[in-house]
Amino acid sequence: MIVAMQDQASDEAIQNVIERMVELGFNVHRTTGSVQTILAGVGTPSHFDVSEFKVLTGVHDAYRISSPYKLAGRSFRPEGTRITFPNGVVVGGEEVIIMAGPCSVENRDQILTSARQVAAAGAQFLRGGAFKPRSSPYSFQGLGLEGLKLLREVADETGLLVITEVMEISQIDVMLPYIDCFQVGARNMQNFNLLRELGYVRKPVLMKRGIAATIEEVLLSAEYILSGGNYDLMLCERGIRTFETYTRNTMDVSAIPVLKKLTHLPVFADPSHGVGIRDLVPPMALASVAAGADGLLMEMHPNPDKAMSDGAQSLRPEQLTELVKKLKQLAPVVGRTIAEGVTATAPAK
Amino acid sequence: MIVAMQDQASDEAIQNVIERMVELGFNVHRTTGSVQTILAGVGTPSHFDVSEFKVLTGVHDAYRISSPYKLAGRSFRPEGTRITFPNGVVVGGEEVIIMAGPCSVENRDQILTSARQVAAAGAQFLRGGAFKPRSSPYSFQGLGLEGLKLLREVADETGLLVITEVMEISQIDVMLPYIDCFQVGARNMQNFNLLRELGYVRKPVLMKRGIAATIEEVLLSAEYILSGGNYDLMLCERGIRTFETYTRNTMDVSAIPVLKKLTHLPVFADPSHGVGIRDLVPPMALASVAAGADGLLMEMHPNPDKAMSDGAQSLRPEQLTELVKKLKQLAPVVGRTIAEGVTATAPAK
Amino acid sequence: MIVAMQDQASDEAIQNVIERMVELGFNVHRTTGSVQTILAGVGTPSHFDVSEFKVLTGVHDAYRISSPYKLAGRSFRPEGTRITFPNGVVVGGEEVIIMAGPCSVENRDQILTSARQVAAAGAQFLRGGAFKPRSSPYSFQGLGLEGLKLLREVADETGLLVITEVMEISQIDVMLPYIDCFQVGARNMQNFNLLRELGYVRKPVLMKRGIAATIEEVLLSAEYILSGGNYDLMLCERGIRTFETYTRNTMDVSAIPVLKKLTHLPVFADPSHGVGIRDLVPPMALASVAAGADGLLMEMHPNPDKAMSDGAQSLRPEQLTELVKKLKQLAPVVGRTIAEGVTATAPAK
Amino acid sequence: MIVAMQDQASDEAIQNVIERMVELGFNVHRTTGSVQTILAGVGTPSHFDVSEFKVLTGVHDAYRISSPYKLAGRSFRPEGTRITFPNGVVVGGEEVIIMAGPCSVENRDQILTSARQVAAAGAQFLRGGAFKPRSSPYSFQGLGLEGLKLLREVADETGLLVITEVMEISQIDVMLPYIDCFQVGARNMQNFNLLRELGYVRKPVLMKRGIAATIEEVLLSAEYILSGGNYDLMLCERGIRTFETYTRNTMDVSAIPVLKKLTHLPVFADPSHGVGIRDLVPPMALASVAAGADGLLMEMHPNPDKAMSDGAQSLRPEQLTELVKKLKQLAPVVGRTIAEGVTATAPAK
């Protein structure tokens, strides 16, 4: 930490800041200029709050100079994290991964049709919500456990992996037998109790960026999961809230290369929530992979006009198929390939 | 809902939109102009998603014209909601309520001293966190149950009411015996499962606005609690995230009169989180009451420089005392008074 | 400036940064820790760009520790700036100043009626636009020179001072004979050529905060005017753009006490543009003065429903009168008074 | 326009709204439901302000249903606008255009070297600032006319076209002899007097999106230029201001496909200002073209570490060369090609 004192700050004020720094565990180096004194705190205590120093008497400003996260930082694992799934799919390698499916599991027919279309398009993961947090209490709230069972059944039939959203601690154990990957939604990115529990689980997690979360906050939240021992973590940009209302959110595509630089964790993009309008999803999916994304998470529905939730942003099946074709052409430009589609390993019924 | 068709939209497209509206339960009135057709849907189905209509073929734009919330709307209870606490304190009436205390309960001495100072300053509620969600996993995380017991003990000794933050469903029952009011933090304003459970409880709730929540989203979240049957709900503006970084957040003071107009629920302001800098709290507290707030929630610490969390934004005890004096002068300008301070009803030890 | 090197940065990288700092005119103090080196640059060159250092090889981060503005800083004139107008009105003293009037000068009748109502309510300044920058080319664009003449005429009749917006350099000389104060609108806060010219004029200026301007940028823009020698400058908070769309902008009331701390310049508030809805203007005006504003700038129209621009946010005459009464009660709470109303000194026609 | 009345609005209130609508030139169709009345105004008056209706007595909400811009709308020229430059370069066709060069023209050597490197990399336009608006009055302010002459000279030598920023009306005539395209910077996107004058010029204009401008505001500003008769207009996304501070701005990549849908004007992207960090420019340039951009505007400097402005975001020459190679591979994926590089047609000195 660096503390820059105000011009002509009193010796007493300087001494008080130094003492407070030493108390926290810093070694303090003092640079005295003709008008301004600067205090450099060397060594990083396990915890300190830089804003406390900003309001001490005589302080001009204070700067944290070390990252507040450690395990999530690129230097912890410079070669990058790779996550291997049971069927051999690897996230974080040269291959770009496709996750697609409806917002909600609505019924057996809908999810089975979805899974077949998603697999046919060449994706590796089936997404679909069983527990649906909706902003209105009067909206459809999901099928719950029944939805999980349907996801597993149709995934096994098609060879896909299952990713679904976990919203609270009590759902973790319920989900474990049915899924391949937990998804933490944007609204839970700072649900620290949930993150801590997911750190103790031995199943991969994909954590979405909160709607108003800075990149640093994304990495601090990642640290919660990593510090519990679960290193199979993926991050996902899905749009932030800005003044622009034409799109549902403003997709921060630059967060993808920024995160790739700051952390070793694989970085996904969710253009469906990023823009919220079906026809904008393909260009934004292409842009995301061009910018370095390790994978895409997208909504697709067999019949979006009849979807029980998020129909406006769900791709039609033929749009997904067309998009994956273009992605296959684009990926080599940035030194990547799109992962192979899956095939059912379990005997079809 | 209104659907404005594109100029020269085809009859087929218009017919398709009409059918979809009727399916949802609207009565549709059609206005055909020389170039543009407008469809007015009268009658409000229990649920519909206006964004689905925006992407239908031939649609220019679609507008929801009814509020998506019902119980939270002003017209549900035009006279305003009043909440009466066990010791006779009334929230939502002519009197403005003061809630103050430290960010976290740190130990018996600290919280007892805090309570005495808060009571002496003239407040009615003691605030203090027992379970602390922090953005870094390496920060102090609160005393838990022990903190709740300490809060109750010192509140009884001073006559104050207790408000503390609930972060997950499992904490509700743990907290019930010790507290007078649940606080839902900004990060949980869209934790819909938690909100739903709080709707079933018979204990008042103060819900903070999320850092990126629109005013409409605040009222939709309120609807979750109200629809469970718990009408003893207060809302609280505490700053939103904007591009300005000098302050911790940007306090949206105008949300206070806007909410007073849109809803019957009492509206509080939390200037401590709103600005994050101690010396800005008093002017923003005065501004909040001038703008119509029904109460204030503020952080005060006996020794902010040694606080384990949020020290930078905690008032010193003498600042709180001085502020309450000014508030007592200001309140009558807007037709209010500051509530009387409390006195211990339980025998002091 | 402080440059924090990355852990284990090479000697070559460190040397390169030191050389670049010395080149710019810094004296460099080096603190070498076991893993990290910190370079403190003492002495402030007239110009440097801290972002250039952030991208040099081996640099972790770089921090400007001095303010980039000098003349605008509080320490330049700790006692605060006072501006005295020809009729004796003083801005920046104990008295809070009221400026009011219609968005646009529409015709003689409208502006004369406005002036009389504004004076009767107790204000000191008449505002009104002669040159109107509008976001649509098809909207009313103002009366131009004719509007300026009307403003002067009715101001003389009522004893009010005139403030009106200047939009480009060529208008400065046209306006000088007719007005008492230039207003720089939010859209021109970074029109640096205009600001520079206004620095050479000897007539007060009120500069509004840009819709997306940080507080630091406001002060840098102020520096442009001050560095030309015009010290009669007032700043004005008028709302920033955020994700909230219920109000026209989000009024950053906390910018008022922040600016009062950082600069010696008087700070106004414009609640009309801040919220954009008539009935929200009075509570926000009260809040602004409670937070420390030196004056208010507000829109009032004799008949807002027929206004040619900004009718929705213009107060009705009786609302202004009522508001000034409340402001007179509120000001003493924060150690201020509302300035006396004016009386015509020129013989009335 | 649609006006939705409040439930049980009085007949008088409804009648008043209808009269006001008729006054403006609407034909009003009234839909009376059991609780709510809806008024549809058909026919679009040349000007009306929807916010005035929102505050009329008895009104629940009001919606503009026609675009406030006409000439800029896609339907005005569905096939898209193509702009042909003197040397045959066409913007808005199948070919993607590259504009590159330093932030400022610093001296003859620097701009000549830049031009050669830009041409060698395969670009068609040389960018460079002669008049530099800077946020600090103490920063380098540009070479002015001398800079324009240098730009023309080196462009002629290399065969490049010249684009440079115009900041005020008086500069238009000064610039005309030396340049091929005017650039309107983000800070001037709502300098309506400047836009109007540029509408009367017969030289192409590239207008950047303001830092806080909505997409609708971009198109309204475009309307100012188009309505003067200058149809050779290009738009440019260059980042908006959000809460994220890691990057200089947040580049709204989705604005590219949105604008392509809403308007016939060519859409550029400026990733240099969009992110502000050199190494993030190539991925964002690729993302922009993947999302449908018609061209790129980028900063490149022969020696960015010594640049007098914006060095941190300027590409090194070899980075530009490498990037253009990748762009040539990527463009065909989205049905485009990168335009051919230029060759000097004027005899080299």
Comma- or semicolon-separated keywords:
homotetramer; 349 residues; alpha/beta; Alpha-Beta Plaits; TIM Barrel; 2 domains; eight-stranded parallel beta barrel; four-stranded antiparallel sheet; 11 helices
End-to-end gap of chain A: 62 Å
What is the N-to-C order of secondary-structure elements of chain A (H for helix, E for strand)?
EHEEHEEEEHEHEHEHEHEHEHHEHE
Name the chain pair whose interface involves the most residues.
C-D, 52 and 51 residues
Q: What is the number of strand segments of chain A? A: 15
CATH superfamily membership of the largest domain in chain A, which one? Aldolase class I
- Helix content range of the residues of chain A, please? 25-40%
Number of helices of chain A: 11
Q: Which quaternary structure do these chains form?
A: homotetramer
Shape summary of chain A: elongated
CATH architecture of the largest domain in chain A: Alpha-Beta Barrel
Kindly provide the name of the CATH class of the largest domain in chain A: Alpha Beta
> What's the story with the biggest beta sheet of chain A?
8 strands, parallel, barrel
Number of domains of chain A: 2
Strand order of the largest sheet of chain A: 7-8-9-10-11-12-13-14
CATH topology of the largest domain in chain A: TIM Barrel
Organism (chains A, B, C, D): Granulicella aggregans
Keywords (chains A, B, C, D): Transferase
GO molecular function (chains A, B, C, D): 3-deoxy-7-phosphoheptulonate synthase activity; aldehyde-lyase activity
EC number (chains A, B, C, D): 2.5.1.54
